Amino acid sequence: MKCEVVAVGTELLLGQIVDTNSSWIGEQLALAGIDSHFQTKVGDNWDRIRAALEAALDRSDAVIVCGGLGPTQDDITRDVIAEVMGTTLELDPAIEERIRAMFAARGREMSENNLRQAMVPVGATTIPQQPGTAPGLVCPIGDKVMYAVPGVPYEMREMVLGTVLPDLQRRAGVVSTIESRVLRTWGHSESGLAEMLAERIVHLDGAGNPTLAFLASGVEGLKVRVTAKAGGPDEVAKLLDEEVAVVAAILGDLVFSERDETMEQVVIDLLRAEGRTLAVAESVTGGYLTGRLSSTPGAGDVLRGGVVAYDPEVKFDVLGLQPGGVVNEEAAVAMADGVRTLLEADVGLATTGVAGPAQAEGVEPGTVFLGLVVGDRTESQRVRLPGDPERVRQFACITALNWLRLVLQGRR
Ligand code: ATP
Ligand code: MG
What is the pLDDT of residues 66-108, one digit of tens each? Predict the structure, then answer.
């Protein structure tokens, strides 16, 4: 079974967007054990798309076409596929209904153009995963097959994982399941993680399965993706469980989630499990911390609220700090304690410091003080954070959340 990829879009040729879809599909095909010998990029031009599709179909048993399924006049992928199939397009009433309903739900006027997306080549079936408006297609051509998926990466990925790969494997007689799990880490660089995992990676490279990959997510830390392949879902789950446990043991405190959760989700869940409530006092983070926590599922059971005490007067008047300096560890603790009392919570967390660009109270920009009051534990921290003021605020949030996570887990 050979399968190749054709990415459609003039922007790809002009270098306006990078064809990450083809590389991602290539990786998935390799993992699924399906040979792939060609990848083509072609502009939004009828004759050239047709030539590209025919050449691909000639050389391979299956072709995945991505892009050009949208509602506009230059989105012609489905029309060209119908021509290559030697058939015509017909309106699929179920898709028409779905598209009309999507527009109605958002209260938006639907232009008739959008119904182009409900046109399906006779003989093709639509892909059940439909994260956007454009339906994906499975188009049998003789004993070969052509799949059409949208260019929008997350829509494409859902359809490839949900339908295209399983269908290809079924056709190839390959029975295997591929799944990934994501561990999230905070507090170490990519090279640092690679060094910690070096021995494990060598071991896994030898075996070829599971595999590990690092994915950067900015101030939110680094993800470690574990991917495994096996004969069925149970076997894959077992391989993933084992490997995730090994990686988590090696990385220890750095791992804040083994299930791709956000830091605030982990914190909310920890508090909720213990039936504790949280109050936040923010100066340098200006409400970001409360914002992140309050938009997390489960926050309603846990988060009492937050006070943005930006002006020193507010720290004195509302949070009860003694008049004096407000950019130091003592102030951070007093803020945490003050807000905990004020909002009648079990845990108080506070941030103060200097995001920059100028110093304050003789303290350098990028210096942040965190205060935490949990039960009878009262603690503070002084941290130096890199970057411009915005980055310092973001870093301060995640640093505070990670600290609270570690304390709640009994790791600090
Ligand atoms: P839509 O229904 O959104 O119009 P479409 O199938 O017509 O989907 P395109 O118009 O080709 O898809 O692409 C939509 C967007 O998806 C592009 O603006 C681009 O950001 C992204 N995209 C398209 N092709 C690729 C690709 N090969 N690699 C990465 N991103 C892509
Ligand atoms: Mg489009």
Answer: 999 998 889 999 999 999 999 999 999 999 999 999 899 888 8
Residue nearest (by alpha carbon) to ligand 1 atom 22: 151
pLDDT tens per residue across span 123-143: 999 999 988 888 999 999 999
The response to whether residue 135 sits with its C-beta less than 6 Å from ligand 1 reads no
The whole-angstrom separation of Cα 174 and Cα 218 is 38
Token pair belonging to 115? 């119904």
pTM for this predicted structure: 0.67
Tell me how long the chain is: 412
Question: Is the C-alpha dihedral spanning 271, 275, 281, 286 positive or negative?
Answer: positive
Span from the CA of 329 to the centroid of ligand 1 (angstroms): 50
Nearest to 151 by CA among 8, 29, 5: 8
* Helix 20-31 / helix 165-172 crossing angle, nearest 10 deg: 40
**For residue 89, what is the DSSP state?**
E
Q: Whose CA is nearest to atom 24 of ligand 1?
A: 151
Closest Cα to atom 4 of ligand 1:
70
Q: Is pLDDT above 80 for 175? A: no
- Rama region for 123: left / alpha / beta (φ>0; ψ in -120 to 50; rest): left
Residue 69 Cα to ligand 2 middle (Å): 6
Q: Is 69 close to ligand 1, i.e. is its CB under 6 Å away?
A: yes
Mean pLDDT of the chain: 95
Distance between CA atoms of 210 and 226, rounded to whole angstroms? 7
What is the dihedral sign for C-alpha 325, 329, 332, 334? negative
C-alpha of residue 13 to centroid of ligand 1, in Å: 13
Rounded Cα gap, residues 123 and 120, in angstroms: 8
Q: Is 371 in the pocket of ligand 1 (CB under 6 A)?
A: no
- Tokens (6 digits) for 325: 């300096």
What is the C-alpha separation between 337 and 327, in angstroms, rounded?
A: 16
